[in-house]
Amino acid sequence: MSIAQIEKLRKERISKLEGLKAQLEKIENDDMYAPEYKLQKRNEIKKELEAVSFDYGTKIAELIDQTESKLLQGFHNAEYKGMDDKQAAKELLKEMRNRDMSEDLIARNKENPEHLYSEAEKIVNANLPYAPAYIRALKKLNVSGADMLEKNYKELNFNELQKSYNKEMELLREQIKLFEVEKTAEESPFKAALMDHYL
């Protein structure tokens, strides 16, 4: 799996960078070496550090992009996968009813969209089949919070395949966060600690 590959590359990258930093520290602290030799070795190791950081960073970023695209595509395809014609027709009919209902909700709540939001929140939390009509009406009326309600409703109604893809996306997001923190730690350990805490 690509997520395991990302984790493996991250660990390899850290290991190589730490090994090179240890070499650099050893040369810096060893009085046996002449200053010219130390300078030469320091420059060589710094170039190698930059190369390792760049090469692994590029590979990891590419793998993250590929994995994310693959997971998103799979997630979107999973919504209707396994549905027979009868189920698909039922979903289409439900969608058409919700569309009509949303137009009615818009007409009735133009003056007081906040009231519509509180109703919609209860309906989404109860996971009622006409919740999409309320969400669509809120979005058409530009009511703040409509996107969050839509996200909550969709998550409540994921099929098993969508749940699986969503779990993989969460694992990928964790890898992205760890990678960002690791890159930041190379420049500023304090900033990395803050990122790790708040991300």
From TrEMBL:
Q: What is this protein called?
A: Uncharacterized protein
